[in-house]
Design goal:
The longest helix is centred in the C-terminal third of the chain and has 17 residues, at about 430-445. The chain folds into three domains: about 1-120, OB fold (Dihydrolipoamide Acetyltransferase, E2P) (Beta Barrel); about 140-225, no CATH class; about 240-445, Chloramphenicol acetyltransferase-like domain (Chloramphenicol Acetyltransferase, 2-Layer Sandwich), CATH 3.30.559. It is an alpha+beta fold and about 450 residues long. It contains ten helices and 19 strands.
Length: about 450
């Protein structure tokens, strides 16, 4: 009899809940088959079995949070006697021992931890938030939605807690007749096609119908997620990701005394440098990350954390870059950035972004950061302040690059200016240190010294 445990899911993950059992008691199990999926604070992860045999007993029900390394199931031979289930906290309600074999005491079973294979941060069409919250979607439903080219967030969930299942996606896709072009436009703009009236043959939704719906005051993503009923308050349960974000951001804001320093950076040289890159094309965020790494090496106090009775300065620069996902915020990490060139950083960021897009980020890909960069320039934001991503002691907020009038040698000139704001924890970083760091960062970007 083999014990299947909830595996280690990364350095920062202490507990998780099983979302779905892919096998039921009595089913044959092979090594490498996906046995169950789990939900951490950031992602949904498929876990494989490392034992062959029959799934004899499920010990942990879905939606119950348990610590990592908890025994969640037993795999053995069909006629093999089950051990005393009391040592595991008893059987899960509603399940029964398979094959009718009597329960019996047993020596400690060989340990065969389930193996995490990949998560589903944003596989296929990413779910859009329900009013005030999050739409839970099963992995199979998301994959089916990608095949059908529909947004699973608009399907009516029949699973636990309103979770959207594969059958729900198929039912949603079957409800509407729509041309391929119209479906693509609706998907790109997060439009709920079930609310669009078709004018084509047989009521089929056409490109013109979708464009008209998007042009309406309630069109697009805002209209799609704002399925409000007058006088009614909709209560949306917190997802694990949203709950952890709330807890960590509140803890950071109220425990770390934040202060803010803003500088304006002339990005003319950086833009010219980027245009001159021939073997690879770094993004502006890549340039900021590289400049931050170089500046931190000159000001290592910024790469530190509060430890209660001491300040710990990290020997590695692990750069987190905030990525806004439909289900919340995730921070992939470029590890040991001090050893990487700009080209290396650009490549790693591209790989992490691709893993996020295809749902293959693992917990270690977004943990262990020592300094974070949050860039909202792509959203047209000029300037903002960010909450420190603990246990970091600083976070850099970068806005858009925008042509602005500036005074140079008494004359007025137009330059591409980017505003950057550093949020610092005053317990760790004094104002003079933060100011010196920002000056160094500004000089690196303005001199294009990458």
């Amino acid at each position: 009899m083999h014990e299947i445990k909830l595996p280690q899911l990364g350095q920062s993950v202490e507990e998780a809940s099983i979302v779905e059992w892919r096998k039921k008691e009595g089913d044959p199990v092979k090594t490498g088959e996906v046995l169950f999926t789990v939900q951490t604070d950031k992602a949904e992860i498929e876990c494989e079995s490392t034992a062959d045999g029959m799934l004899r007993k499920i010990l942990v029900a879905p939606d119950v949070e348990v610590p990592v390394m908890t025994v969640v199931a037993l795999v053995g031979e069909a006629g093999e006697a089950l051990p005393d289930l009391a040592q595991y906290g008893g059987a899960v309600p509603g399940t029964a021992a398979t094959s009718g074999a009597p329960a019996a005491s047993a020596t400690p079973a060989p340990k065969a931890d389930a193996v995490p294979v990949h998560d589903e941060v944003s596989a296929g069409p990413a779910p859009h938030p329900a009013p005030g919250g999050w739409t839970p979607v099963s992995p199979r439903a998301r994959k089916r939605a990608e095949q059908l080219k529909v947004d699973p967030a608009f399907a009516q969930g029949s699973g636990v807690g309103g979770r959207v299942m594969e059958a729900d996606v198929e039912a949603y896709a079957a409800r509407v007749a729509i041309t391929p072009t119209a479906r693509k436009i609706a998907l790109d703009h997060a439009l709920d096609v079930s609310r669009v009236e078709g004018t084509g043959p047989g009521g089929k939704i056409t490109k013109a119908d979708v464009e008209q719906a998007l042009a309406s005051p309630r069109g697009g993503a805002a209209g799609a997620v704002a399925a409000m009923v007058s006088g009614k308050v909709q209560r949306v349960p917190l997802s694990p990701m949203r709950r952890i974000i709330a807890e960590r951001m509140a803890a950071s804001k109220f425990s770390a005394p934040h202060y803010y320093i803003t500088v304006e950076v002339d990005m003319s040289a950086a833009m010219a440098f980027r245009r001159g890159c021939t073997d690879f094309k770094p993004s502006f965020n890549d340039l900021v990350l590289r400049a931050a790494s170089l500046a931190i090496q000159q000001h290592p106090q910024v790469n530190a954390r509060w430890a209660g009775d001491a300040i710990e300065v990290s020997g590695d620069i692990n750069l987190g870059f905030a990525v806004a996902m439909p289900t919340g915020l995730i921070v992939p990490v470029v590890r040991q950035a001090q050893t990487k060139t700009l080209k290396d950083i650009s490549r790693v960021c591209g790989e992490l972004a691709e893993k996020a897009r295809t749902g293959k980020l693992l917990p270690d890909d977004y943990s262990g950061n020592t300094f974070t960069v949050s860039n909202l320039g792509a959203f047209g934001v000029d300037q903002f302040t960010a909450i420190i991503n603990q246990p970091d002691s600083a976070i850099l907020a970068a806005g858009q690059i925008k042509d602005r009038p500036v005074v140079i040698d008494g004359g007025i000139h137009v330059r591409p200016i980017m505003k950057m704001t550093l949020s610092s924890d005053h317990r760790v970083i004094d104002g003079a240190v933060a100011a010196q760091f920002m000056k160094t960062l500004k000089d690196i970007l303005e001199d294009a010294n990458f």
